[in-house]
Amino acid sequence: xxxxxxxxxxxxxxxxxxxxxxxxxxxxxxxxxxxxxxxxxxxxxxxxxxxxxxxxxxxxxxxxxxxxxxxxxxxxxxxxxxxxxxxxxxxxxxxxxxxxxxxxxxxxxxxxxxxxxxxxxxxxxxxxxxxxxxxxxxxxxxxxxxx
Length: 147
Description:
The protein is mainly α. The chain has helices at residues 2-9, 26-77, 84-89, and strands at 109-112, 126-130. The model has no long low-confidence stretch (mean pLDDT 87).
């Protein structure tokens, strides 16, 4: 009789315990998606900035090499080259570099030298070169003004 009594004393409400379904709630998914979007935007910004810095480094190097070739040409021939192609034909450069911002070797802006006071018949040559890009650098200066 003890078994029958003890079974009747246990209250039963008729409900079964609810099982929790595995998975994520909508709020959890939204938080994760928001974090992914923030991290992706930071990554894209850093990537774009590093690409611009790399192009600026290439432009600085190209300007340095061409100016050095112009100086060597002047030291050897005692006159400035008439065109940038003279630096290539005289083997001071292998080829004219491509401006990393205009993507062309034909957009370099040349600065002519002053006429020689003792030799009025001599034509002025190229004594400096600048980028033909119209964009602004990361530091706020124009690429066409870089020294």
